[in-house]
Specification:
Among the domains are: 168 residues, 3-Layer(aba) Sandwich (Rossmann fold); 72 residues, Roll (Luciferase, domain 3); 95 residues, GMP Synthetase, Chain A, domain 3 (2-Layer Sandwich), CATH 3.30.300. A nine-stranded mixed beta sheet has the order 2-1-10-9-11-12-13-14-15. Strands 16, 17, 19, 20 and 21 form a five-stranded antiparallel beta sheet that branches. A four-stranded parallel beta sheet has the order 4-3-5-6. α15 links the parallel β25 and β26. α1 crosses α9. It is 33% helix and 24% strand. The chain contains 16 helices and 26 strands.
Length: 509
């Protein structure tokens, strides 16, 4: 296969009437999804030419999935925008993306007009009624290659300018084949979809589902604030496979929801995006003991994942899970600052999952996508992840933290993840995050749970050297989360700065 659409078309031939994507209100069968995507593709092909980016400004619905596929049918590639995103950030994305069209609907039309000229707006309702022009779509398909972009996904940039990660059909196909084979995804799988379509984790459940005949059941985001209705939703739709960020899984443990109701059909629990607290994992394994649990790890630049660990043992509450071993057909190297192979250093990734680079940003592409320094025979590309890892005693990779999370405090090099691991294992701590204020040279630990700040600080004194102790431990009723469901560290950094300011002014914190 040379593009992602061919696999979906094969699925339609096998399971035309099976539900493909649903959200509890609307549902598209595989055949209905295909027809809607082809209609959208026929419309866009006459609107924005070929090989151009199209922005999708829609909520996460079955129709949004059709819009993504429709853009691919048109010979173009898509960027899904968060409909709650500040207009300023959309403007920064458009500085490099410069989309040929913005696909939206009536519900979001007025806000879309604030950042897009009227002539570039394409209404989903109109595109969805366009007759399928199969000869045009066949002509477009004949000119496509596996290296054509499927989508551009924007991530945060260190300079404040978002980076657009270009993922090709080749990379998406290679990755979803691995995911389906490794975790046994087939037509009996029902994914409970948590992550937004503008987040790389969504590639795993959406495209793996569409390649195999599985069902993608979109979970309303509001349910993650109400554990019991969330469990009822999972049971109602017989969801058997989860791929969530650990913060979402932690909601169940924080509320002890499984003491009242359990997800009766869940048999696979995959997680990625942030560290999984060992206590959260232990809670799930205690109440859902027959499920497979796996820690998946990787950046957007490897489509989604590059290493994985299938849980095969128990962990102490303050112990970190390993990130395991490279996915099949992926190369993982640990290199030191001089580019030599080491047992501890920066993780470099190669293989077919690799993104093509950053859209309209050759400088950042050249800095991050480099030649393998250990291979002088041919230019083998690797991605510098910026992640620090070590090789454990049994060969498993262990995540140490981000290079940019390695701080210098009181003259010492410190990994914030080590502080979080020590705090996360404390009795009465559900979830935590440590942030650093470089100007004040101060560490602040935020946590959620019933533990007192005094008892938590006492525990840290027993487990950490003095130079690693946070200046303060702050209990929150709930941790802030960003649009992807991860802990919002920028928000915590802002709160820490406010607390430091009050402390300087002599105000009680």
């Amino acid at each position: 296969m040379k593009n992602i659409l061919q696999g979906i078309e094969r699925t339609v031939l096998r399971f035309p009437d099976r539900a493909a994507v649903a959200d509890g209100e609307t549902e598209l069968s595989y055949l209905e999804l295909l027809i809607l995507a082809k209609r959208i593709g026929s419309h866009l092909a006459g609107t924005c030419g070929r090989g151009r980016p199209a922005a999708i400004y829609l909520d996460k619905t079955p129709a949004c999935a059709a819009a993504m596929l429709g853009t691919a049918y048109s010979g173009n590639f898509y960027t899904v925008l968060d409909t709650g995103m500040p207009l300023e950030r959309i403007g920064r994305i458009f500085e490099t993306l410069r989309p040929a069209a913005v696909l939206t609907d009536r519900a979001h039309l007025e806000r879309a007009r604030a950042f897009c000229p009227e002539e570039k707006l394409v209404m989903l309702e109109d595109a969805g009624r366009t007759p399928v022009c199969q000869p045009l779509l066949d002509e477009i398909r004949a000119g496509m290659t596996a290296e054509d972009p499927l989508y551009v996904l924007y991530t945060s940039g260190s300079t404040g300018r978002p980076k657009g990660v270009v993922v090709s059909h080749r990379a998406a196909l290679a990755y979803t084949r691995w995911a389906a084979d490794t975790f046994g995804v087939d037509e009996t799988t029902v994914f409970g979809s948590q992550t937004p379509f503008y987040f790389s984790m969504s590639v795993t459940d959406l495209y793996t589902a569409l390649q195999t005949g599985a069902r993608l059941q979109i979970i309303p985001p509001a349910l993650f604030s109400f554990p019991l209705p969330l469990i009822e939703y999972l049971n109602r739709w017989r969801v058997n496979t989860l791929y969530w960020v650990p913060s979402a899984l932690g909601v169940m443990a924080s509320w002890d929801a499984f003491s009242y109701e359990k997800p009766r059909f869940v048999r696979k629990v995959l997680f990625a995006g942030e560290r999984m607290p060992a206590k959260t994992l232990a809670y799930w394994r205690r109440f859902v003991p027959d499920a497979l649990y796996a820690d998946l790890f990787g950046p957007t630049e490897t489509t989604d994942i590059c290493t994985y660990y299938i849980v095969d043992r128990t962990f102490a509450d303050d112990e970190d899970l390993p990130i395991g071993r490279p996915c099949d057909n992926c190369r993982a190297l640990i290199l030191d600052e001089e580019g030599n192979e080491a047992d501890r250093g920066e993780l470099y990734i190669g293989g077919p999952f690799l993104a093509s680079g950053y859209y309209n940003d050759p400088e950042k592409t050249a800095a991050a996508f480099v030649r393998n320094p250990l291979n002088s025979a041919w230019p083998e590309p690797l991605y510098r992840t910026g992640d620090l890892v070590a090789r454990g005693e049994n060969g498993e990779l262990v995540y140490l933290g981000r290079k940019d999370h390695q701080i210098k405090h009181l003259g010492y090099r410190i990994e914030l993840g080590e502080i979080e691991a020590a705090a996360g294992g404390a009795e009465g701590v559900d979830v935590c995050a440590c942030v650093y204020d470089e100007t004040a040279d101060a560490l602040t630990l935020f946590y959620q749970g019933r533990a007192s700040a005094e008892s938590l600080t006492a525990r840290l004194r027993e487990r950490l050297p003095a130079y690693m102790l946070p200046a303060r431990a702050v209990r929150l009723s709930s941790m802030p989360h960003n649009a992807s469901g991860k802990i919002d560290r920028r928000e915590l950094e802002t709160r820490a700065a406010v607390l430091l300011g009050k402390q300087k002014e002599g105000v009680a914190c």
